[in-house]
Design goal:
4 strands, two-stranded antiparallel ribbon, alpha+beta, 128 residues, elongated
């Protein structure tokens, strides 16, 4: 079973286009050229591994649960590699906490910035 489109969207939208690691939070889409397509550097990582012998694999977990948004976290490729290579440091509980804190950070950041939107910007958006 693969990760459904709905589960992919849920994780990506909750992550606000940022790596979930607090000391990183890099933007996960790079768009620095007019000549090429945007580059996605974000990766969906399993909190409890997706295959036997993968980091934090739980053999008792059902495949549907393993590929649900609850067991996924959005990271940059560097942070994904780090958490998978350091499963004793990045345990299931720690990753769940990182994901929760990041989701709250995204919401608070969005709410804080909405007050900085000007009438000129709102008009531009509504006209578009």
């Amino acid at each position: 079973m693969t990760i459904t489109t709905k589960n992919q969207k849920l994780v990506c939208l909750e992550s606000g286009n940022r790596c979930a690691m607090k000391n990183c939070r890099i933007i996960l889409i790079i768009d620095k050229t007019l000549n090429d397509d945007k580059v996605i550097i974000g990766e969906l990582a399993h909190i409890q591994g997706d295959k036997p012998h993968s980091a934090r694999y739980n053999s008792k977990m059902e495949e549907k649960e393993r590929n649900s948004h609850r067991n996924l976290i959005l990271l940059c490729s560097n942070c994904h590699k780090m958490i998978d290579d350091q499963p004793n440091t990045y345990t299931v509980d720690i990753l769940i906490n990182i994901k929760k804190e990041h989701a709250l950070w995204v919401i608070k950041s969005s709410e804080k910035e909405i007050v900085n939107v000007t009438f000129k910007e709102l008009k531009l958006v509504t006209d578009f």
